[in-house]
């Protein structure tokens, strides 16, 4: 630690010398939270970053003066080079006269308190941070949902935590903290804070990869974009560990039911402080929302700060995106969607292109790449094709399935280039990246592109194979025979779409899927080989690829039991057939032996023997005559 670094760190007391709160899982460029904070913080603003945050968040706030409030001394040393000042203490360690334009508590309030200092509780910490916010300032606060999706699917209960970080257990019986959004808005209002925007954080509070406006989740329940965003975000949870049920399926169902906001693992609330100091005084607030008894009044009294000085104006609600989603491999960036006069539109991101020639002589070219510059214009409206197909399968609506698949196949055929192949975003236009509005089809996210043009049948087979694998391994009911394997169902779906696909084409599509998935998830050469091997071996009795959901594992076990029962019955039938054939052969052999020893059999053999001898003699005479009549070799010259 350099002298300059040491000067930036203030230790007023209460620091934790042998503890670190920095998140182990870090998102590229800080993820959606950092992107949202960059929109909230104006240039030149004084920012208080309360609690542990990804260091990349400070890099995104380089245009502001950032003070970090941490309880961990090692974390303070790690962030001192990025921040203007670091205060290592509990919330009471902030100087009483400090005022900030923006206060960000993106890790919640529990991680702000130090176990080495005076405990204020959730409400007391909120009071102290509110006091540090100048009138007209902005508070960005995270609140974890005690009934969030992450708890509903967790294999271990939330109350069974025994690790070192489980100092505070957030339940619904603690009256000191709010348990839902309405209670949080009431606590903020009692402190002179007006909640202007609220974002649902998926798939986990500590590492959100999707932030979606709760109002948009309630209004746009059939949005294909939100469907794909929630499903993509929650699919990564299953890949990281074992859960009770598929969180992606539950999140999409909650969206369609209009409850995705209520089931969000956490909420990020953006609130503005009133310009009237009296309205923001906790002493005049609702006693039920006040801090704990014994808290220092001077520590929570904003009037102690003296007159407020001019502050940079924070951005308004209209400037914020309705969704911030991080997809693809590390470094792919955050996709933003804003609500304009003509509907939802992509917000132009920094130019980023992946792919191109290989860097090393023996490196292979990626099968797909990201072109963030393609995210311009309106977000395609409509429902996700994958969801419509699943709905048709569950309801056995073969007419709807035929209409959707044939319309999809015709649309793909209409996007071919001069060589009759699909290039660019159409090469990756699978059923989970295509939206349907009436009879119109469109690519949802055009930033992902195929590096090389692909044949129409390969693109169609790859898309149908992905859907068939999800249909069979996920245990979804469908109108086709249960004896089909994944390749066989792909061929059947191709026939429904009006294309005559064969198994070699499906095999080529599986290889293309392995190469594309490796590029989309940032896998190396070994990872691609392992993925291709796994995809080739997919069977209907397997659980979904990469999934470890107890519910889906149980369904896979039931399918395996049914398959074993069918094979056992087939084996029993085969054994009975072989036994019956063996008995018949034994009866025939006994009959032959019985007949060979009878008088009539012997007489018959004696009568037939002269005829056999005469027949052999006739054949020998015929052969000698043919040789005698044949021309000699010398006569042929």
Layout of secondary structure:
Elements: H1 3-8, E1 9-13, H2 31-40, E2 46-50, H3 55-60, E3 65-70, H4 73-79, E4 85-89, E5 100-105, H5 121-131, E6 133-144, H6 149-152, H7 181-190, E7 193-202, E8 210-213, H8 214-219, H9 224-240, H10 247-256, E9 266-273, H11 297-300, E10 323-326, E11 334-340, E12 343-346, E13 368-370, E14 383-384, H12 385-394, H13 398-413, E15 421-424, E16 434-437, E17 440-443, E18 448-455, H14 456-473, H15 486-496, H16 503-520, H17 525-536, H18 550-596, H19 599-629
Parallel strand pairs: 1-4, 2-3, 2-5, 3-4, 5-6
Antiparallel strand pairs: 6-9, 7-8, 7-9, 8-10, 10-11, 11-12, 13-18, 14-16, 15-18, 16-17
Oligomer category: single chain
Helical run tally: 19
Overall number of domains: 3
The share of residues in extended strands comes to 15-25%
CATH architecture of the largest domain: 3-Layer(aba) Sandwich
Question: Which segments are poorly predicted (pLDDT under 50) over 5 or more consecutive residues?
Answer: 279-310, 351-364
General form: elongated
| Global Rg | 36 Å
SS-derived structural category: alpha/beta
User: What fold name goes in the CATH topology slot of the largest domain?
Assistant: Rossmann fold
Give the mean pLDDT: 83
Short description:
Helices cover 40% and strands 16% of the residues.
Describe this structure in words.
The protein has 637 residues and is an alpha/beta fold. It has three domains: 3-154 and 176-288 and 318-325, Rossmann fold (3-Layer(aba) Sandwich); 348-548, no CATH class; 561-617. It is built from 19 helices and 18 strands. The strands form three sheets. The chain has a twelve-stranded mixed sheet, sandwiched between helices. Strands 13-18-15 form a three-stranded antiparallel sheet.
């Amino acid at each position: 630690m350099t002298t300059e670094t040491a000067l930036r760190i203030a230790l007023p007391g209460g620091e934790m010398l042998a503890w670190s709160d920095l998140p182990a899982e870090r998102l590229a460029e800080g993820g959606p939270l950092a992107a949202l904070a960059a929109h909230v913080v104006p240039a030149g603003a004084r920012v208080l970053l309360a609690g542990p945050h990804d260091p990349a968040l400070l890099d995104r706030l380089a245009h502001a003066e950032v003070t970090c409030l941490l309880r961990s001394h090692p974390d303070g040393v790690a962030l001192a080079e990025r921040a203007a000042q670091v205060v290592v203490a509990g919330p009471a360690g902030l100087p009483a006269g400090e005022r900030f334009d923006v206060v960000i508590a993106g890790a919640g309030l529990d991680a702000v308190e130090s176990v080495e200092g005076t405990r204020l509780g959730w409400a007391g910490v909120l009071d102290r941070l509110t006091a540090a916010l100048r009138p007209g300032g902005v508070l960005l606060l995270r609140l974890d949902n005690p009934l969030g999706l992450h708890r509903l699917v967790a294999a271990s209960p939330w109350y069974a935590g025994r690790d070192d970080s489980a100092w505070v257990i957030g339940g619904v019986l603690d009256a000191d903290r709010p348990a839902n959004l309405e209670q949080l808005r009431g606590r903020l209002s009692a402190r002179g804070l007006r909640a202007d925007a609220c974002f649902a954080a998926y798939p986990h509070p500590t590492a959100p990869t999707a932030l979606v406006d709760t109002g948009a989740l309630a209004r746009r329940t059939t949005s294909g974009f939100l469907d794909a965003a929630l499903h993509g975000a929650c699919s990564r949870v299953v890949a990281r560990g074992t859960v009770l049920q598929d969180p992606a399926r539950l999140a999409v169902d909650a969206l369609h039911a209009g409850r995705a906001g209520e089931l969000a693992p956490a909420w990020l609330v953006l609130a503005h402080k009133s310009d009237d100091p009296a309205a923001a005084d906790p002493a005049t607030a609702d006693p039920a929302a006040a801090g704990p008894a014994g808290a220092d009044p001077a520590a929570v009294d904003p009037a102690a700060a003296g007159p407020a000085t001019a502050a940079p104006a924070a951005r308004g609600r209209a400037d914020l995106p309705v969704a911030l989603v991080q997809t693809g491999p590390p470094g792919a960036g955050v996709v933003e969607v804003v609500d304009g006069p003509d509907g939802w539109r992509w917000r132009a991101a920094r130019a980023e292109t992946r792919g191109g020639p290989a860097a090393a002589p023996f490196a292979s070219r990626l099968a797909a790449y990201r072109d963030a510059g393609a995210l311009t214009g309106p977000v395609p409206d409509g429902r996700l094709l994958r969801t419509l197909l699943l709905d048709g399968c569950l309801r056995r609506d073969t007419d709807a399935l035929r209409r959707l698949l044939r319309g999809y196949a015709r649309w793909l055929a209409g996007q071919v280039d001069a060589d009759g192949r699909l290039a660019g975003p159409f090469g990756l236009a699978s059923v989970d990246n295509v939206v349907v509005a009436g009879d119109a089809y469109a690519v949802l996210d055009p930033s992902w592109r195929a590096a090389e043009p692909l044949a129409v049948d390969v693109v169609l087979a790859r898309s149908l194979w992905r859907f068939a694998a999800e249909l069979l391994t996920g245990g979804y009911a469908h109108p086709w025979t249960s004896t089909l394997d994944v390749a066989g169902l792909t061929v059947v779906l191709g026939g429904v779409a009006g294309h005559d696909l064969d198994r070699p084409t499906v095999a080529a599509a599986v290889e293309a899927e392995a190469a594309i998935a490796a590029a989309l998830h940032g896998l190396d050469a070994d990872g691609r080989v392992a993925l291709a091997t796994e995809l080739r071996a997919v069977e209907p009795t397997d659980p979904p690829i990469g999934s470890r959901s107890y519910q889906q594992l149980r369904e896979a076990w039931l399918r395996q039991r049914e398959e074993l029962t069918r094979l056992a019955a087939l084996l029993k039938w085969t054994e009975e057939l072989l036994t019956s054939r063996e008995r018949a052969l034994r009866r025939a052999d006994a009959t032959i032996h019985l007949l060979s020893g009878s008088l009539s059999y012997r007489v018959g053999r004696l009568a037939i023997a002269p005829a056999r001898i005469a027949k052999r003699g006739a054949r020998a005479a015929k052969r000698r005559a043919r040789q005698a009549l044949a021309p000699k070799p010398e006569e042929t010259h």
